[in-house]
Write a structure and sequence with these properties.
- The chain is α/β, with parallel strands linked by helices.
- About 40% of the residues lie in helices and about 15% in strands.
- It has eight helices and eight strands.
- It has helices at about 20-35, 55-65, 85-95, 110-120, 135-140, 165-175, 190-200, 225-240; strands spanning about 1-5, 40, 75, 100-105, 125-130, 150-155, 180-185, 205.
- It has an eight-stranded parallel sheet.
- β2, α2 (about 55-65) and β3 form a beta-alpha-beta unit.
- The longest helix has 18 residues, at about 225-240.
């Protein structure tokens, strides 16, 4: 599986190719799925471009994307979009249109309460386990571990030379990950080395403008679909070489 991460916490300051509005996100999702993405991860935005868990923004984003694609669509629940843990859970419980899945960063305060709320709503949980945090240790003890949809092994090491090693260490820390599927991905300078490692290990992965603005040769990507197409090529080459 190759998931496309359409925008992340990026803003218009990082280029017009970063989709922010529901309409722009829907077009980007349609193009990325046509390029081969089989799952979508998106950060709904306020009109001024900030990440939000607002029921209105989440509904508008999901409805626009689902009008264009038939693959699963997930959203972030990152603490930066609502810092207060109780308020974050309340926002999620107020959603009127539900995503297929939502990522929960296990190192953030209130992660388990948030996961419980999502599961109660019938929303799949992607357990975000970041390198450089205690997320793996917390997840190992979590009663919700066996119930998550999958684990997002998120390599925050952005150094091209060391990201693969950091990824391998994170996978070791995760151990059996409660037997759940693992999606491995990196970011910025680490995005492509980690994607190729995922191919060699035959793990699910993701790519898109959230994770990197650049192609492997250092050129600026023009859209998510271009990153997906290149990601599938790199992933396939890595699989064949393993």
């Amino acid at each position: 599986m190759v998931q496309v991460c359409l925008n992340g916490a990026r803003s218009a300051a990082e280029g017009a190719m970063v989709p922010l509005s529901p309409e722009a996100l829907a077009r980007a999702a349609e193009e990325a799925v046509a390029a081969g993405a089989t799952d979508v991860h998106v950060h709904p935005k306020t009109p001024c471009g900030r990440d939000t868990l607002s029921p209105r923004a989440v509904a508008a984003t999901l409805e626009a994307i689902r009008a264009r694609v038939a693959v699963p669509v997930g959203v972030t629940t990152g603490a930066w979009s609502e810092p207060d843990p109780a308020a974050r859970v309340a926002r999620v419980r107020a959603w009127t249109v539900l995503p297929d899945h939502a990522s929960v960063n296990w190192h953030e305060p209130g992660a388990e309460e948030l996961a419980a709320a999502l599961l109660d709503l019938g929303v799949g949980v992607e357990a975000g386990i970041w390198s450089g945090t205690d997320g793996a240790a917390r997840f190992a003890l979590s009663p919700y571990g066996p119930r998550v949809l999958r684990v997002l092994a998120e390599v925050t090491d952005t150094d091209e030379g060391s990201a693969e090693g950091t990824a391998r260490a994170l996978l070791t820390d995760l151990g059996s990950a409660h037997g759940r599927p693992v999606l491995l991905h990196g970011e910025d300078g680490g995005a492509w080395p980690v994607l190729r490692l995922a191919g060699r290990l035959r793990l699910a992965t993701r790519i898109g403008l959230e994770d990197t603005l650049l192609l492997p040769d250092g050129q600026r990507a023009v859209c998510n679909a271009q990153l997906v197409a290149e990601g599938l090529y790199q992933y396939g080459c890595a699989q064949r070489s393993s």
